[in-house]
From TrEMBL:
<feature type="binding site">
    <location>
        <position position="263"/>
    </location>
    <ligand>
        <name>Zn(2+)</name>
    </ligand>
</feature>
<keyword id="KW-0378">Hydrolase</keyword>
<dbReference type="Pfam" id="PF03193">
    <property type="entry name" value="RsgA_GTPase"/>
</dbReference>
<keyword id="KW-0547">Nucleotide-binding</keyword>
<keyword id="KW-0963">Cytoplasm</keyword>
<keyword id="KW-0690">Ribosome biogenesis</keyword>
<feature type="domain" description="EngC GTPase">
    <location>
        <begin position="75"/>
        <end position="224"/>
    </location>
</feature>
<feature type="binding site">
    <location>
        <position position="255"/>
    </location>
    <ligand>
        <name>Zn(2+)</name>
    </ligand>
</feature>
<feature type="binding site">
    <location>
        <begin position="114"/>
        <end position="117"/>
    </location>
    <ligand>
        <name>GTP</name>
    </ligand>
</feature>
<feature type="domain" description="CP-type G">
    <location>
        <begin position="59"/>
        <end position="226"/>
    </location>
</feature>
<protein>
    <recommendedName>
        <fullName>Small ribosomal subunit biogenesis GTPase RsgA</fullName>
        <ecNumber>3.6.1.-</ecNumber>
    </recommendedName>
</protein>
<dbReference type="InterPro" id="IPR031944">
    <property type="entry name" value="RsgA_N"/>
</dbReference>
<feature type="binding site">
    <location>
        <position position="257"/>
    </location>
    <ligand>
        <name>Zn(2+)</name>
    </ligand>
</feature>
<comment type="function">
    <text>One of several proteins that assist in the late maturation steps of the functional core of the 30S ribosomal subunit. Helps release RbfA from mature subunits. May play a role in the assembly of ribosomal proteins into the subunit. Circularly permuted GTPase that catalyzes slow GTP hydrolysis, GTPase activity is stimulated by the 30S ribosomal subunit.</text>
</comment>
<keyword id="KW-0694">RNA-binding</keyword>
<dbReference type="InterPro" id="IPR010914">
    <property type="entry name" value="RsgA_GTPase_dom"/>
</dbReference>
<dbReference type="InterPro" id="IPR027417">
    <property type="entry name" value="P-loop_NTPase"/>
</dbReference>
Length: 295
């Protein structure tokens, strides 16, 4: 039987079969690394259980990694919805990293500027996102307090695709999910406050279906770090699409675009064609990765 992993807890997975039924599945032996969004072949066991025998070839896998560990977000993702908001104010560094992760994995990003009902930080947010707008990233303003508008703006973009909601904690990922898919009833910080359970927010990644099976939406726990240690220097450069045409004029084929003479990227930086902030992020990621591999 074939199916898709819709949630993963340790070695326990929920797999949704092609007929819509779900089964509790586990893996045998040393098989690990299966993640939400994976298409798998399972061997049915007992009533509603199964064992995962094979992971089918992935189109892509989005993950982050730092010195300590690596964490998979999801597999077979068509687009990334990076959710940012003004309260708490989003981190530009993490947003840039998420974009680099997406571009280097060949996943097209969209930025959702959520909580736009809270007007105070909006001008600052718009300004700091301008750089991505110039790079062609669609930026959509949203508010869960305007549910009809939110559906009208987002549903057409999500149609027949697998989209992943990604962002820092408290940006409103699960709240957006609940507007688009009311029966999802995902836990949000609002519920946690109401229940007095403290900051109990999303703790695991899960795949949901949009109404009438018009696409899949994956909710994920907020992150506080976004290491990209798994990327090579070339991968990182690919995560900065605005470098591309300038790289063609670098003198050295193995140019790192940090200090080499005759570097097209540094020339564009000097002319102000490439932004300082973006090149600084590129440098930060690269230096982190270089210092990690020395151990
Ligand atoms: N004013 C306003 N508040 C919002 C909006 N969207 C979400 N919130 C609130 O922001 C808080 C955090 O929302 P969540 O949906 O739990 O955030 P999350 O991104 O899923 O957080 P994690 O699961 O921890 O990653 C909740 O109290 C929501 O009610 C919005 O559009 N406007
Ligand atoms: Mg959440
Ligand atoms: Zn160069």
């Amino acid at each position: 039987m074939k199916g898709r992993v819709i949630s993963a807890h340790g070695r326990h997975y929920i797999v949704e079969l092609e007929n819509g039924q779900t089964r509790q599945c586990y893996t045998r032996g040393k098989k690990t690394g299966i993640c939400v969004g994976d298409f798998v072949r399972i061997q049915p066991q007992a009533e509603d259980e199964g064992s995962i025998e094979e992971t089918l070839t992935r189109k892509n896998l989005l993950y982050r990694s730092d010195e300590m560990r690596s964490k998979q977000f999801a597999a077979n993702v068509d687009q990334l919805l990076i959710v940012v908001a003004t309260e708490p104010f989003f981190s530009e560094d993490l947003t840039g990293r998420a974009l680099t992760g997406a571009w280097s994995a060949d996943i097209s990003p969209i930025i959702l500027l959520n909580k736009c009902d809270l007007t105070s930080g909006m001008a600052r947010a718009q300004e700091s996102l301008e750089i991505y707008r110039e790079l062609g990233v669609p930026i959509i303003s949203s508010s869960i307090h305007e549910p009809e508008q939110l559906k009208q703006d987002l549903l057409p973009l999500l149609k027949d695709k697998t989209s992943l909601l990604l962002g820092q904690s408290g940006m409103g990922k699960s709240s957006i999910l609940n507007v688009l898919i009311p029966h999802a009833r995902a836990h949000t910080q609002e519920h946690s406050v109401a229940l007095g359970t403290g900051k109990h927010t999303t703790t695991s990644t899960r795949l949901y279906h949009l109404p009438n099976n018009t696409g899949c939406l994956i909710d994920s726990p907020g992150f506080q770090a976004f290491g990209l240690y798994h990327l090579t220097q070339t991968d990182v450069a690919n995560g900065f699409p605005e470098f591309k045409t300038h790289i063609e004029s670098c003198r050295f084929y193995n140019c790192t675009h940090l200090h080499e003479p005759g570097c097209g990227v540094l020339a564009a930086l000097k002319q102000g064609v490439i932004s300082n902030k973006r090149h600084e992020l590129y440098e930060r990621i690269l230096l982190e990765n270089q210092s990690a591999t020395r151990y």
